[in-house]
Amino acid sequence: MIRRPRRNRQTEAIRNMVQETTVNLQDFIFPVFLLEGDNQKTEVSSMPGIYRYSIDKLLEEVQECVDLGIKVFAPFPNIREELKDKYARESHNPEGLFPSAIRAIKQNFPDVALVTDVAMDPYSSDGHDGIVENGEILNDETLEVLGKMALVQAQAGADIVAPSDMMDGRIGHIRKVLDENGFQKVAIMSYTAKYASAFYGPFRDALNSAPKAGDKKTYQMNYANAREALIEAELDTAEGADYLMVKPALAYLDIIKLLRENTNLPLAAYNISGEYAMVKAAAQNGWIDGEKAMVEMLTSIKRAGADIILTYFAKQYAQLLKLKS
Ligand code: PBG
């Protein structure tokens, strides 16, 4: 035998030398859940190790993460039911929980970057990402709300706004609203190929944001489709997106690869709540090694072509790196 691939796997030093893909802390965006009140920290039952924080507690958590080397965060608010309505009005209240948290983080951590979620569902009494009328999700009317929400987030100090709603034309509309108001420097990370997925369950527990009726299939993509992701990517790029994203990540590695081959924009992948929960649940049962599964999962997402990974594992991965060093 002339060719023996095992020669390059003989020792750890050699394996490390020929390793093609590495997950680094600067690849991460850490999603964090927000809660009203003071001194509040409640665990998300379906996401062991992940908590909802009141702003004061969140600042402590951000400090810990910054000390570990995580510099980019994506906050998501848990809004109390009384503040929700059909039009998600609370989503563009400048004094609301979300803009207040953005201001607090940016004041305390000017070097931290914030990627802020633009979507109605945490604030919608219908639990949908758009305005619901007779069971239909209205597109163009929803854009108005998204524009207002993005503007309030930019005014509060968001670096990157990230529409996760999947309405048509949202990137163009948000770009226009931001530019008209002097926020040319605020970037847009588009949830470009966001699929209607069964893996979002734990996130909806965290925010209490599940749809009250129906599902999200008229706006989120059909998981059987790949070419359609290219159409979304083309539109987002033409409308001015600065980043594209694929979501979920694990069952969609082919989509990550497809978009990587078809765009020169930075590409993010969202390693979502259900993907986190599966690893945690199996690890708690002693069925898999959770730490190893985490590293393998994150590496696969990067290997598929993602530059950036939104992941609930960000802090645990950073802790693991620190332990090893
Ligand atoms: C909704 C939104 C969802 C997630 C982020 N933004 C869920 C949904 O579409 O219902 C899911 C993230 C996760 O599961 O970790 N705008």
Average of per-residue pLDDT values: 97
Q: Helix- and strand-based class?
A: alpha/beta
What overall form do the CA principal axes indicate?
Answer: globular
Largest sheet: 8 strands, parallel, barrel
Terminal Cα separation, in Å?
39 Å
CATH class: Alpha Beta
Q: Give the full name of the CATH homologous superfamily.
A: Aldolase class I
The helix/strand order is HEEEHEHEEEHEHEHHEHEHHEH
Notes on the structure:
The chain is an alpha/beta fold and 325 residues long. 39% of the residues lie in helices and 18% in strands. It has one domain (21-208, 221-324): Alpha-Beta Barrel (TIM Barrel). The chain has an 8-stranded parallel beta barrel with strand order 1-4-5-8-9-10-11-12, surrounded by 8 helices. It has a two-stranded antiparallel ribbon with strand order 6-7. A hairpin with a 7-residue loop joins strand 2 and strand 3. Helix 2 (55-68) packs across helix 3 (97-108), helix 3 (97-108) packs parallel to helix 4 and helix 9 runs antiparallel to helix 10.
In short:
39% of the residues lie in helices and 18% in strands. The protein is α/β, with parallel strands linked by helices and 325 residues long.
Topology:
Elements: H1 12-17, E1 28-34, E2 41-43, E3 51-53, H2 55-68, E4 72-77, H3 97-108, E5 113-118, E6 131-133, E7 136-138, H4 140-156, E8 160-163, H5 170-180, E9 187-194, H6 201-207, H7 227-239, E10 243-247, H8 253-262, E11 267-271, H9 273-284, H10 290-304, E12 308-311, H11 314-324
Parallel strand pairs: 1-3, 1-4, 1-12, 4-5, 5-8, 8-9, 9-10, 10-11, 11-12
Antiparallel strand pairs: 2-3, 6-7
Helix pairs in contact: 2-3, 3-4, 4-5, 9-10
Bound molecules: ligand PBG.
